[in-house]
Amino acid sequence: MLKIGLTGGIGSGKSTVSTLFEQLNTPVIDADIIAHQLVAVGQPALAKIQQTFGSDILQPEGSLDRKKLRELVFSNPLEKQKLEAIIHPLVYQTIQTEIKRLIAPYCIISIPLLFESNMTSLVDRILVVDCPEEQQIERLLKRDDMTTKRIQSIINSQISRDFRNSKANDLIDNSGSNDRLAEQVKTLHNFYISISICQDTLFCD
User: What does DSSP say about strands 106-110 and 125-130: parallel, antiparallel, or unpaired?
Assistant: First the structure.
């Protein structure tokens, strides 16, 4: 099965692209969803986070205070590294397990921090969703309860746009209309189907 790694900067539109692929009956494995599940109440990762960052990182009922954790890790690179050391290996293992359960010509593996987390070995091709930084900031101001300063700090903490785009096998431009975005996804869907057939048969040049 062909494995496509979907990535892009925060606010670039990765979730929308994932949804469009799902509407074409393509299985999508989402690293963010996996990470959320791993830190649910009762999960070992949550206990490790509490041990590392203290009980103040929890809500009164025992669940993770995601906003407080986010503020902590994006204001301190060392704290961010500690969190990633807990979460990334578990996400990697879970993705591998989910891949083995799939039966499809190809799948999308959405990993926002594909390069930062060194998970490129999981995928056969890299699909980057791209848009100008100004659009990222505009979308996030509408979507999330964050200041422009906080959004900028998150963007700065990620791999640069130029580096990400230079490593892409395939690139989606999400600076235009929703119709244009859907057209690009459909074109790539057909392309990935054709590649997967070649991969299975070994008859293509």
Answer: unpaired
Do 112 and 87 fall into the same domain? no
Encoded tokens for 162: 């130029």
If asked whether residues 112 and 182 sit together in one domain, one would say: yes
The model's pTM: 0.89
Buried-exposed string 154-176: b where 16+ CB fall within 10 A, e elsewhere: bbeebeebeebeeebebbbebee
Q: What span, in angstroms and rounded, lies between the C-alpha atoms of 51 and 17? A: 36
Distance CA 150, CA 156 (A): 10
**What are the tens digits of pLDDT across the range 182-197?**
999 999 999 999 998 7
Q: Over the stretch 79-133, which tens digit does the pLDDT of each residue have? A: 888 999 999 999 999 999 999 999 999 999 999 999 988 899 999 999 999 999 9
Are 112 and 91 part of one and the same domain?
no
Count CB atoms within 10 A of the CB of residue 142.
Answer: 8
Contacts 24+ apart (CB under 8 A), 67-72: none
Shared-domain flag, residues 7 and 95: no
